Amino acid sequence: MRLQFYGVILLSLFGTAASADPAEFEQCKTQMQLQASAQGVSEATVKEVIPTLEYQARVIELDRSQPEFTQSFADYFGKRVSQSRIDKGRELYAQYRDFLAELTRKYGVPGQYLVAFWGLETNFGSYLGGMPTLDSLATLACDPRRSEFFTTEFLLALKLLERENLRVDDMKGSWAGAVGHTQFMPSSYLRYAIDGDDDGSIDLWSSRRDALASAAHFLSQLGWQRQQRWGREVKLPADYDFTQAVQQRPLQDWRSLGLRNADGGPLPVVIGMDADLIIPSGHKGPVFLVYDNFDVIMQWNRSTSYALSVGHLADRIAGAGALKQSIPKDQVRLRRADVVQMQELLIDKGFDAGVPDGLLGPTTRSALREFQISAGLVGDGFPDRKTLTQLGVDY
Asked: Keywords for this entry (predicted)?
């Protein structure tokens, strides 16, 4: 199965999981000083930065309520692929057309995708985030949920501070520590960011060209396929058999199952090209076939809603029209606790929903689809009201 969702709780690099409690934050900072020194961060930076770090309670709140995983697809998609964002994206695409074409020749990523990422991440630089980056990363590093990941990012942020001669007060971004126009984490900044405006420095906060060039380089390194789309909206036949697997299969197999382009035309014949079927809002909503580049987008942000939004926004920026099938508005907004309850109920009924982690990933959708079919419902793997009620979820 190509699309993966990771819900592993990582352990702290410090030997035991550090607490997110502010009272224990000072002890965690002492441990981070030792870790930073061992990783080659200069003593001057260690002594100047780490003692001044402040616990950010708001960061922990936001970490537990990410919109990619708590909003319905209708809410998420509608807010992010708005007409104003499409119009602004087309304007900026035209403004940077020559530069974007140069990046496409070099890295193989069409410019509309770079602009779409820019739009989704910071609304084209209109809001880069105002959270103190080092404080945010330290707070998350001292929280047991994903301590190892954020400890690594914090230490790399200190190295970035030194490499680019940055000021601590200027390092601001998202609650999770992502920075700049295209919201790079420190690890991505250090590894993939490049000098796009040829001024001798890499500044993802102030230089749009640095940010766009870095995004192109990043996507190419993640495996972006030249001459390939992200995916496309498709139309299911009226009698589509939802007991068929929805995961990866050759494009010609989808044709044989009766799938067509959203406008009713035939799917293209591309030998050797595989696709996955994505049904984000149930069989009454839009349906998509997605290709390898969709997986690349998912490596940027592991949310199906995010990846579909990037892909469709890119299409709209390049001149495509709106979705042929509208998204149903009456969708249940599930909290993580609701999804955990759903997963536990599925497991109790004998359907393998994986670890009850509150994430509606492919394993859970597969279990939900099996339950729907067994209950005489449409087996689209979507938690609509009828399915949730019959399953017994108290949403």
From this structure: Glycosidase, Hydrolase, Signal
The tens digit of pLDDT for each residue in 166-196 reads: 999 999 999 999 999 999 999 999 999 999 9
Q: Which pLDDT band holds residue 12 (cuts at 50, 70, 90)? A: very low
Q: Domain residues for 362?
A: 336-391
Query: Residue 298 belongs to a domain with what CATH number?
Result: 1.10.530.10
CATH, residue 163: 1.10.8
Residue 183 forms part of a structural domain: no
DSSP tag of 146: B
Parallel, antiparallel, or unpaired for β 231-235 and 131-132?
unpaired
Question: Would you list the DSSP string of 60-113?
Answer: HHHHT--HHHHS-HHHHHHHHS-HHHHHHHHHHHHHTHHHHHHHHHHH---HHH
Q: Which two tokens stand for residue 82?
A: 């708005």
Q: Between the CA of residue 350 and those of 343, 359, 374, what are the distances in Å?
A: 11, 19, 11
Give the integer Cα–Cα distance in Å for 107 and 204. Answer: 18
Residues 151 and 38 in one domain: yes
Question: Which class for 11: exposed (0-12), middle (13-18), buried (19 or more C-beta within 10 A)?
Answer: middle
In a domain, 184, yes or no: no
Geometric angle at alpha carbon 275, from 271 and 280, rounded to 5°: 160
